[in-house]
Every structure is written in C-alpha cells, then in structure tokens.
Amino acid sequence: MMTFRFLQLFEAGRLLRLILFLSVMWGISRNTEAQVLLGSGTEHCSHRNAELKHNRLTPGPAAPEYDVTYLEFNLNIDPAVEYISGSVLTLFEVKKDLSSGLKMQLSTSLTVDSVLFNGIPVTFSHTGEYNLHIAIPGNPPAGSLQNVQVFYQGKPVSGSGFGSIGWKEHNGVPAMWTLSEPYGCRDWWPGKNDLTDKADSVDLIVHTPEQYRTASNGLLLTDKVEGGIRTCHWKHRYPIVPYLIAIAVTNYEVYSDMASPGGIPVEILNYVYPEDKADIAPRTAQAVPVMEIFSELFTPYPFISEKYGHAQFGWGGGMEHQTMSFMGRFDFEIIAHELAHQWFGNMITLNSWKDIWLNEGFATYLAGMSYEHMFNGYYWPFWKSQNIAYVTSEPGGAVYVDDTTSVSRIFSARLSYSKGALLLHMLRWICGDEVFFTACRNYLNDPRLKYGFAGTHDLKAHLESASGKDLTEFFNDWYYGEGFPSYNIVCRQLAVGEYEMEIRQTQSHASVSFFEMPVPLRFKGPGGDTTMVFDHTFNAQTFRIYPEFAIDSVFFDPLQWIVSASNRVNLIKKEDAATCYPNPSAEVVWISMPDLLPESFRLTDCSGRIVKVPLVVEASGLKLSIADLPSGLYFAKLRSPDTSRILKIIRQ
Description:
alpha+beta, Immunoglobulin-like, 8-stranded mixed β-sheet, 5-stranded mixed β-sheet, 13 helices, elongated
C-alpha cells in the first residue's frame, strides 16, 4: 500500500513531488543507524558545475604505437606545500613504428627535468598545455619491451572536483589528494592518458614528512620512517586504467573491516581523519554486507587477492579509485555506489566516455538494488520513485553522451546516472531476473572484456544472447533516443467478466516515435487482485481480458518498472455511457461511448455556439484535436441508438 500512496503522491507534479519526497526521506534518514540518504550516490558522485576546474576539456591523442605494461611512481609530497616532485617509470611494449617519438601527456604547469630511455638520457619537447613528446633512438622493433622514466617537478594546477588535484586542511591539518577522472592524470603525472590501455601492474612509492600517511591502490608493502621521512609503498597487481590511479596524503588513522564474499576473507581498509573516526567507523562497516550481496548477484569481488578500502578526502563526493575509493562523505548509498564501481568501471572499464553509463548507470543501479536486498526492502520503492521523478523532470536527454569534451554532460546526474540505472532496470524487466543476472555475469566473465574495456554493444550482445531477444529497438529508443512515454489507459467493461484494455502513448521528445514496452497493470475488485502484462507494440492497441472478478480499480505499473510520467488510467464500467480523456487537455481528447453515432456529435462553447474541430472516427470513439481552441469550458453533445450524453471538456 505504501508504494501506491507514493505513486499517487507523485502525480501531483514533478517538482513538488520531488521536493516533498526528499523532505520526507531526509526526515526518515536522520534517525536511521545506517545513515540512509536516498540519492546520495547519484548526487555526490556526479559532476557539479561549481566544482569544476574546467567545464570543457580536450581528450588526449591516442597513442597506439605502444602498450603500457607497468608503471612505477616515485614521488615526494608534503601536503602543506602545493608542490610535487619525483619520477614515473613506464615499461611498454612497442606496437608500431616509434621513429617519430613517444607521445605522452603532462601539464605544462609542471617542469620536466629529464627523461631516460632504457636508462639513457634522451631529448624531449614539452609544449602546449599537455604535450610531452619523447625522442626514441633506434626505432625499437615491434614486440620489444622498452622503458622511459620522466623526472619532473612543480606546482600542479589544483581544483576541487573531477579531473583535479586537491589541497585542503581538515581540523588545521593539511591534506592532498588526486582525482583524475576523466582527463586529469596529466595534471600530476606523465603518461598515456586514454581509454585504450591498462597497465598490468603499478608500484606507487610516496615520500612525505613522517606525520603523514599515503593511501593508494593495491596492497601496502611498506610503511617506514627514516630521517623524518615516511615512505609508503603500494603495489597493485591488476590491470588498471590511468584515471583510476590515485594517492591521498594526510595524517590518517587506519582501521579495517572484514568481509567474506563467497567465504573468502577480504580486508576493507579505511584511512580516515582522526577527528572523524568515531563517526565514520560504524558507516564504513556497511560495505561488508554490500560486498557480499554484489559478489553473490554478479561475480566475486574483482580484486579479492588484494583489498578494498576507503580514504577520506576533501571533496564532497566520492571516487571509485581501484581497490580504494576516495570518500568525502559516508552515507550508505554512496558507499554502495563506489563499491559497485569495482565491478562496473574498474574491472571492466568503458572504452569511450560516450558510454559512461556502463560505469555510472550500473553503480547507481547496484546501489539501488542494495535497498532491494537490505532494510527489508523498505527503501527500494522510494529509490525507484525518486529516480523516475528525476529522469522525467525534463522532457529530453539521452543516456548516450554526444559531447565528451563537456565534463558536465559526461557526468550528468539525470542522464548518465539515474536514466542509465533505470535503463538497466527496464532491461531487467524485459528480460526477467534470471536472464538479466546471467547476462551480467557473462559480461563480467567474458575473457575479451574482463579486466579490460567494453562498450554498450558488448553488454547488448550478452543480453541478447542470454534472452534470445533482439534489443536493437529498445536501445534505439532508450539509449540513443531522448525522453520517455506517458500512457493513457482505458479499461472498458464490455460485459460481465469481459473487459477491453486500450493503451495509448505519447512521447515527451520527438526523437522517439514510440516506446515498445511490456506494460504491467494491476486490477483490483471484490474477491480479486491480479497484475497482467500487456505487450504494447503500437499506439491505441486494444486487448481483451476476462478476470474472474469485477474490476473496481486499475493501477499502472505498480512495481515501477517503466520510466514514464503523467500517466492516466480510466475505468469505464458498463453502466457508464460515455467518457472523455484526458480532461483537462491542451491538445487532444478521446471520447469513448458504446455505439457512438459520430454524425450526431457536436461541440459547443459556453454560449451554445457550435465549435468546429478536427476529429477522427476510431473504433473506440472519436479523437478531437482541440489545440486551436481558446482555453475554457466546452460541451460535447453525442448520441447513440440507446442514449445521449453531454460531456464537459476543459481546454487548458
């Protein structure tokens, strides 16, 4: 019953229902031990314009001439000073002709002191904003392993959001962190900054004043202090894309939680500010059951031989750095969201920022499914209502990203996160649970994709293979297309125990002419309550149903599977001679009446003057086009062989 009350509540208006809903849920969440705040995973992980260093960015050039196999960072950092120095060693396999040199990227706010190729000094140029071009002597043969080491220093360009390196105090103590997504690697280290290559392994060695600790990817091999300098050495032995490499430095306190996905112990290592530890420690423990749920639904935690962890940092959101998410807050949903990325985004990484939903849509949906499997399912319907209301708050917008130079478009909370998540939710509805989760597991275990890169076509192929369905039309409508449908549904009683269902649809955006969807409707009446699914493949489609009870109420999409808004359901019992819908209306009204005689129809205004409007005779009645009428009250006078009626029509 709670679900239906909220569905009715949300019909009052998109903005009002969203404000009211968030207010109610904030009041609920303040008193919950689990620190539930619905929407925090989307709100605080997505881009906000106020926190951008650059709103428009230029991706780096592809460098197919070489394949990175290993990286070694050796850096000197004092978080009290906005400065970085050290070197990055890149081991690579030659793929193509390197006679024109090696292409890398590094911000020209940093100074390159020298470059070694296989230990020998070589010449280089460092121009423009990011272009680092290294001369490679001898044109080494394809298939050979070579290395370059870049020594550099300087003050990085800092920011506070995506693609930044941050410096900020907490409780009077300096802190420093990196956040490289999507193109920010070049702001703090020299390398191949793209979505075509993962290093097979990486060592990160960071030297700091002894009061600070460094959090990073992989396993901590050493943490030692000599001569007032602390050296933290992290080793990661899984393939990793450049934007997921990260470091954070401050006076961290460290503690662990332990999970057991599939019976295998996994440490959840937490680096937090000392003044916040008492408050944060109960919250990080929430990752334990979530990791176990994700491992059961999909595949075991992808980096199970190392660890997972959280490192507190000074940004208000979260970032899913591989094996250690950086966290600015510790609500349940954001913890679940960043953990979900370890499967979707880290183990399998999008191969183009056009497909960011493969990262963010999955992470948002898995965080939502955490509510389905925890808290006795209490928050699950609210999560669905909130995200549907958010997506339908504007009429347009595609999940597909057509402008990858715009960080705000890539990380659109409404489209890449919420609509991407609901796209998966609808695929689950169309395919069924067993097929959907089988397809996701096959996608994650595909040897062509696992610990590599994937595009939307790869996920689509696995869904089609598992389901036997052609999902091209679905992806054309929901992934490339914009907007969402609104449904007008009439349940008309024809006789005792016999009803005709008529399902009409309008679209919020012209890019989609029709959304083909299985439409669930719940029917209730004395002694009966059932849900039926109608395969809606064209507009004004009719269906006959024969329930074993008299219907007295009809509910659209009771479990909220479909992204839609402004839906109307009309039940016409046999004794009802005529009806019109939607009413009020600004454009079109359908009039339904048994045995309607269209030649007797007329429309008058309040003064009794006949008004002529375009009309179309359909099997179920008349379709009136009233868009050209002035706003006001009108009367439709109509007659059948047995009766006549006058209906009021309000033109908005």
